[in-house]
Write a structure and sequence with these properties.
A: alpha/beta, D-Maltodextrin-Binding Protein, domain 2, 5-stranded mixed sheet, B: mainly alpha, two-stranded antiparallel ribbon, 14 helices, 2 strands
Chain lengths: 446, 317
């Protein structure tokens, strides 16, 4: 035998060997059917926090100060409970939490993210419905904020089924306005209907002012379009579509009308031509610098915008289609879920309940979020006060609407590229909505 | 067998005790042991390569035969995912964009690199190290930083438009990455900027190996700078060009970081590349099978093109 053929043979044997090792199993884990049943709704749930010392671990992303402060305040209230916080970068969070939640060293409490909604189907997180009843969370948290955190047993449909997490701080998208530019354009008050908003944009254009600071490079100016959808589309149809409820369809006359308004805004020059080449963050910066009468953006930019503009900026809910309609606003929450492997679930559930307390409301507000206990928010001034008023309005109207990209994992890409094409006049509103429905159907089925 | 053994022994030139001993009895056994020692030396690197390159590679091929969301149990679907890669216009479009990027990453980079090497390499001059460092600099800056910087430069009021305005070209200024026709070339030019320096340094070191007498002969025959370049420099750099071509073409086809941080496929999917879609499908789309199939297809395509480049350049050298 020559060396060459022997080498080839060895390589072949080696390769097959590796292939056998790798190929041994079907990817994925089967549902653990036995481990997840500690918490069915109703009787037998204990909310008693243990009197002996216990230690809980808490994994989180977003806002380190706020989560740490919440943990500290909770420990002050329950000295026997120690919370150890574990911070993970956002970029790695979903991936690393997926692994750690299915491991034996799962954190007791973990910050929830919609990308993790399938964890409940895999039986890795506690169904909180029982605690919800015991603690009376329906009265302590806004219904629409809790409903966003319900996932059915397929792990695909939101707004129904098990409660998987509890909100600790809400976010809300609305309309920022520049007061001095409003005066310059001859506008007396912020718009109260979509038609008024369109008319104001026309006035701004006539006064040679950029009407809407729009940035679509990263997410296709999603918030402005979602604002119009919230106001003009049928609320329950729109919510069903985002939640993934069977049979939902986004290609409706009112959705087409809403998208058409969006298309006409850009077509009529109410937004800068550079919108598709500007990031969301850059559009907020442009607005703060005075280039733009309006900006559709979330509370997360309020601190920076308020710092630059001071009293010159105001915030209001995105105006409804008709005056007197219920307020609907895009928003979600920083929320926390419990591992079904946790040994001290009652203590962990007490932490979730604590999120609705007045002490927590102050921490959440200082952390840049809107407290679910809206009335307990600490007094604020300027744009922060406007935000709290808007939050109270949305909470009392039960009008919190999840982000449209929650509809399916791949939805954000279709939303982004589609809205960029609508912005550039390269796609008809109906074709855009049909492209979204295609992605929706591919994920949820017809 | 004997001939082979001698070869092995000769290769172990440092080991004087074995050298030239193949005619003595017992040599063959010693040699065989020596060969196994060679494999032992290879083992650490080989094990790492096996564990972190070959095994994941084969695993990817295996995954490409499933419909799998990354969490729940996968379903065997055979070659369906490969049909999806061939038929889905979004995935096909990404392949086309990657081919367009070859023009910028490979074509323009090599032309710019050759030009700079021709200008700077013709005569020895002081400060050569300085030029080399400056032109090579883009190579050592992380691509993510490069991408973010260029994204700023391409904005409405960014450096690119400021320069255009300064030279009176106000009429063509725009937010470059927002243009449906110009975003892809704009991204491609970032690749040209990043890779030209690498090509230049490669060509310069090649050009410095050229015998000066060739240039003298060419000059005596009355060749100017241009003629010299085409008659002497270019043919001598064939090997370097082949290396540059391989590196830059692979960079274009496997591009991810530049696109991800500048446009993320925007606007309207006009700048998507396969690497970006692999990432999207696997980590946000929950379609690990299709992502794996696309990755395998891309790998096969890259290997094919690299083999082709090697073939073409081997014939001529």
């Amino acid at each position: 035998m020559t060396t060459a053929t022997r080498k080839a043979k060895m390589a072949a044997v080696g390769t097959i060997g590796i292939a056998l090792i790798v190929v041994g199993c079907t990817p994925g884990t089967a549902n653990p059917t036995t481990s997840a049943t500690t918490t069915t709704a109703g009787g037998g749930i204990s909310t008693a926090v243990p009197t002996e010392p216990v230690t809980l671990t808490l994994a989180f992303i977003d806002n380190p100060d706020m989560t740490d402060a919440l943990a500290d305040a909770f420990q002050a209230k329950y000295p026997q409970v120690t919370i150890e916080t574990q911070f993970t970068q956002f970029a790695d969070y979903v991936k690393s939490l997926r692994l750690s939640m299915s491991s034996d060293s799962a954190p007791d409490i973990a910050q929830y993210n919609p990308a993790l909604k399938d964890l409940s189907a895999a039986g890795l997180v506690v169904d909180l419905t029982g605690y919800e009843e015991e603690y009376g969370w329906d009265a302590k948290f806004p219904k629409s904020a809790l409903d966003q955190l319900r996932v059915d047993d397929t792990g695909k449909i939101l707004g129904t089924g098990s409660l998987v997490a509890v909100p600790g701080g809400l976010s809300l998208v609305g309309l920022y306005y520049n007061k001095s530019l409003m005066q310059e354009a001859g506008i007396n008050a912020p718009p109260t209907t979509v038609d008024e908003l369109t008319a104001d944009l026309a006035k701004a254009k006539a006064a040679d002012i950029t009407g809407l600071a729009l940035g679509g490079l990263d997410y296709g100016s999603l918030h402005a379009w979602a604002g119009l959808m919230n106001s003009m589309a049928n609320t329950s149809d729109w919510r069903d579509w985002i939640n993934g409820t069977a049979g939902a369809n986004i290609v409706t006359p009112d959705a087409i009308a809403a998208t058409t308004v969006f298309a006409e805004w850009t077509k009529n020059g109410y937004a800068p031509d550079s919108a598709n080449g500007t990031t969301e963050a850059d559009s907020a910066t442009a607005f703060a610098k005075g280039d733009g009468l309006f900006l559709v953006d979330g509370n997360w930019d309020a601190a920076a915008i308020g710092k630059t503009m001071g009293d010159n900026v105001g915030f209001t809910v995105f105006p409804p289609a008709a005056a007197g309609n219920k307020t609907v606003g895009t928003g979600f929450s920083v929320s926390y879920m419990l591992s079904s492997k946790g040994k001290h679930q009652a203590a962990a559930a007490a932490f979730l309940d604590f999120l609705s307390s007045p002490e927590a409301a102050v921490i959440e507000s200082n952390g840049g979020f809107l407290p679910p206990n809206a009335k307990a928010a600490p007094p604020a001034t300027g744009v922060q006060a406007d935000l709290q008023a808007a939050n109270e309005k949305v909470v009392s109207d039960d009008g919190l609407m999840a982000f449209p990209d929650f509809a399916a994992p791949a939805m954000i890409d279709s939303l982004t590229s589609g809205l960029q094409q609508v912005t550039a006049g390269r796609m008809e509103p109906k074709a855009f909505l049909e492209s979204l429905q295609k992605v929706w159907t591919a994920y949820h089925g017809g | 067998m004997a001939a082979n053994s001698t070869n092995v022994v000769r290769e172990r030139s440092g080991d004087t005790s074995v050298r030239g001993s193949s005619d003595r009895p017992g040599a063959s056994r010693r040699v065989r042991r020596a060969r196994w020692i060679g494999y032992a030396y290879l083992a650490p690197a080989g094990t790492l390569y096996l564990l972190f390159v070959l095994v994941p590679g084969i695993h990817t091929v295996w995954l490409s035969l499933f419909r799998w969301d990354g969490v729940t149990v996968g379903k065997w679907v055979g070659l369906t995912n490969y049909r999806e890669v061939a038929e889905n216009p979004l995935l096909r479009g990404a392949m086309v964009h990657a081919l367009v990027l070859i023009t910028f990453f490979a074509g323009f980079s090599i032309i710019v690199g050759l030009l700079m090497a021709a200008i700077l390499g013709r005569h020895r001059r002081s400060g050569m190290t300085f030029y080399r460092v400056v032109f090579f600099l883009p190579q050592i800056v992380p691509m993510v930083a490069v991408g973010i910087t260029w994204r700023w430069m391409y904005t409405e009021n960014g450096a690119v438009n400021q320069i255009l305005r300064a030279i009176g070209l106000d009429s063509i200024t725009q937010a470059w990455l927002g243009s449906f026709t110009l975003a892809l070339p704009a991204v491609g030019l970032i690749g040209t900027w990043a890779l030209s320096g690498l090509c230049f340094v490669l060509f310069l070191s090649g050009a410095q190996k050229i015998d000066n007498s060739l240039y003298e002969a060419a000059r005596m025959d009355g060749a100017g700078a241009v003629r010299e370049f085409f008659a002497v420099t270019l043919p001598a750099l064939r090997g370097e060009i082949a290396v540059a071509l391989t590196i830059t073409v692979v960079a274009a086809l496997a591009s991810f970081d530049i696109v991800y941080v500048t446009t993320n496929g925007s606007p309207g999917n006009t700048t998507t590349v396969p690497g970006l879609l692999v990432y999207r499908l696997a980590f946000t789309g929950g379609q690990v099978g299709v992502a794996s199939a696309l990755a395998v297809t891309l790998t096969v395509l890259i290997i094919g093109i690299v083999v082709l480049i090697q073939r073409l350049t081997r014939e001529t050298t």
